[in-house]
Amino acid sequence: MSRQSKIIIYREPEISKVRAAAQASAQVLDRLCIAANPGMSTWQLDQLAISFIQETGGKSAFYGYNGFPGQICISINEEVVHGIGRKDRIIMLGDLLSIDVGVALDGYIGDNARTICVGRKATGAAAKLLQTTEESLYAGIAAATPRKYVRDIGAAVQKVVEKAGMHVVRELVGHGCGRKMHEPPEVPNFKTPGASPILQPGMIICIEPMVNMGTHRVVFDRQDHWTVRSMGASLSAHFEHQILITENQPEILTRWPKTV
Predict the structure, then answer these.
(1) Residue 48: count of CB within 10 angstroms of its CB
(2) What is the 8-class DSSP label of residue 170?
(3) Is the pLDDT reported for residue 4 higher than 50?
(4) Mean of pLDDT values over 193-213
(5) Secondary structure of 44-58 in the HEC alphabet?
(6) Could you give the CA distance from residue 130 to residue 238 in angstroms, rounded to a whole number?
(7) What one-character DSSP code corresponds to residue 88?
(8) Taking residues 97-109, what's their average pLDDT?
(9) Helix %, strand %, coil % for the chain, to 5?
(10) What angle (nearest 5°) sits at the alpha carbon of residue 17, between those of residues 11 and 23?
């Protein structure tokens, strides 16, 4: 493993270990999305995550991270990210539920997120939001090829989102992720001016568009100091994949089930 401008370039066997952690987190996320049903509390979903994560042989990468009190992040409707499981927060039919899962396995981290509509197929504005956010994620991934720049990822995400008349959250960004949850570089979901790190084979990053129906601006909960909401309480969605930059097309480490 070598460093250039503090960015970690991963090589085997470390890549395989990150891949294993990413697959663990992807499996847990998929199981939680299936398990989430109307009438559950977000605390119950958080507790379910404990057993799912333990079954992978890993542990939550989020619990205790900078003091975070949950096993996973559970955010509903206008909550953008970092929602904490609560016994009095009940998941309702038709809620947009964002689940963010991080798994630490054998010294490496896997991280991914997805937003679903609970108990039924999304319709109208909610369906458009989910489709746009997921499409923007894959546009960002497609732009993550060697010798392009980190800013090219953000530009690709932003183009899809703004074409749909929606807004990319700017206060929160993607990140490098391998040995630690957050490593350089930051990966904004919008085009940034000035210098930007070049994408090199061996870089492992998380691309995670957070998209609001209303303004891009957000507010931070003054009581729990974690939950981030869209300003104006408009619907929000969050999709995330952890990827490896290769000599050719990026490898999606958190694709589940894993395909060749």
Answers:
(1) 19
(2) S
(3) no
(4) 96
(5) HHHHHHHHHHHHCCC
(6) 8
(7) T
(8) 98
(9) 30, 30, 45
(10) 125
Cα dihedral value 187, 193, 199, 205, nearest 10: 0
The 10s digit of each residue's pLDDT in 145-158 is: 999 999 999 999 99
Cβ of 98: how many Cβ atoms within 10 Å?
A: 26
Measured between alpha carbons, how far is 183 from 3 in angstroms, rounded to an integer? 12
Mean per-residue pLDDT, 254-259: 81
What is the number of other CB atoms lying within 10 angstroms of the CB of residue 172? 18
- pTM (2 decimals)? 0.95
Residue 202 has pLDDT above 60, yes or no: yes
For residue 137 the two structure tokens come to 């994620």
3 conformational bin, left if phi > 0, alpha if psi -120 to 50, beta if neither: beta
User: Shortest CA distance to 238 belongs to which of 219, 211, 201?
Assistant: 211
Q: Where are the alpha helices (DSSP H) in the chain?
A: 14-35, 42-55, 124-142, 150-163
CA distance 152 to 91: 37
